[in-house]
Amino acid sequence: AVDISKLRDVTGAITFDPGYKNSGVCKSDITFLDGEEGILRYRGYAIEDLADKASFLEVSYLLIFGELPSAKTLEQFENDIRKYTLVNEEMKNIIDGFPKTAHPMGVLSALTSALTAFNPKSVNVENQSDLYEGVCKTIGKFLVIATWTYRKSMGYPLNYYDNTKGYVENFMNLMFSLPTGPYKINPIVVDALDKLFILHADHEQNCSTSTVRMVGSSHAGLFASISAGVSALWGPLHGGANQAVLEMLEEINKAGGDVDKFILKAKDKEDPFRLMGFGHRVYKNFDPRAKIIKKAADEVLSSLGVKDPLLDIAMKLEKAALEDEYFKSRSLYPNVDFYSGIIYRALGIPTDMFTVMFAIGRLPGWIAQWKEMRLNKEPIGRPRQVYTGSPLRDFVAADKR
Ligand code: ACO
């Protein structure tokens, strides 16, 4: 609640809504979300249908250009993205300047911004071909530099995009192929990652998307706006939740793997501990994305046959919480981060790369929202405030203070 007595010098009527929880800041045709009913749709299409029947690049095209592409248009789009997957060699010098221990999201944000220096022509959003080229360039180069942040942290040589393979297969190759031999790609894994990227592709006006729109509203370029989105996503309150799931599983493992003990802890109102990956701020009955990805997680785990105590704990935790009255009565189901964390772990993706995975998925949403904001000719984002500082004071010279 606002303490009215502390408010001073308020000029005109101002809506006070910290975190914009109840403010619609734009009109948007892109994503529909109903948290009570557990509905998520991109451009009117149910997320269930898109995850089941479309590919990530198909969904990217839908989000950005508004319609599902024909088979021919999709093939052209994939080819055009391929054309831009070469990243300027001098970008490698920038990567070399980072310590190996740098967080990949910091490196990704810096590299995305640096793309402006090597691609200085700004994207004219009103010109169809200019816009299309900018979109393909961003999607092509972002994947490569995202994986380079991992290669750098491991001290591995940087890999290049393989034009004979699809976008998600390339992700696996770029990440894991070594000079000793190419990475063996498992189609079940590719399918699960494709779905995960689709599920993360847009979520209306979340923190990083609002950031992209806000930065873009000053007519800063596309790469600069996306770079700001990466920084916003980096925060633990936003993209970092799946990392928190893994950290919790590690904590349970270190404490002997007693899942019931941690369920009790989560129910204890005196204890601040919460089960990470359970519950959602917007989806109050179930997270539609979690339902889809749970199936993929089960398939990945049985196909890879990974033996990992953390994954065993995750499965036990899921079962125990789903059967527990406390969690059932509060509709606290595993959310998308719970299962995405499990899949990434099973694929051998290190925990601090989880948010980078999220960023790769969210990229088409950021681009679509940036484009919509510019085409709608939205004004520069400039919120007001409620001033709570001192009233007018007399200036006192330094020697008299
Ligand atoms: N573990 C134990 N109890 C929980 C949990 C949990 N994970 N989540 C909510 N509760 C309890 C609350 O204590 C509260 O209990 P009460 O009615 O007895 O007071 C009740 O469920 C309702 O919870 P709220 O706090 O009102 O739910 P809110 O909408 O504020 O929080 C949130 C949602 C932040 C996601 C919460 O469920 C949580 O902290 N989850 C764990 C963290 C997590 O997984 N975050 C990722 C979300 S997905 C994403 O951001 C992409």
How does this model look, in words?
- The chain contains 17 helices and three strands.
- It is mainly α and 401 residues long.
- It is globular, with a radius of gyration of 23 Å.
- The chain starts with 30 loop residues before the first strand and ends in a 26-residue tail after the last helix.
- The relative contact order is 0.15.
- Bound molecules: acetyl coenzyme *A.
- Acetyl coenzyme *A binds next to loops.
Helix amount: 40-55%
- The tally of beta strands, per DSSP, is 3
The ligands bound in this entry are:
acetyl coenzyme *A
| Most strands sheet | 3 strands, antiparallel
Question: Helices, strands, pairings?
Answer:
Blueprint: E1 31-34, E2 39-42, E3 45-46, H1 47-53, H2 56-65, H3 71-83, H4 91-96, H5 104-118, H6 128-154, H7 167-176, H8 187-200, H9 207-216, H10 222-234, H11 241-254, H12 259-267, H13 288-304, H14 309-323, H15 325-329, H16 336-346, H17 354-375
Antiparallel strand pairs: 1-2, 2-3
Helix pairs in contact: 1-8, 2-17, 3-6, 5-6, 5-10, 6-7, 6-17, 8-13, 8-17, 9-10, 9-17, 10-17, 11-14, 11-16, 13-16
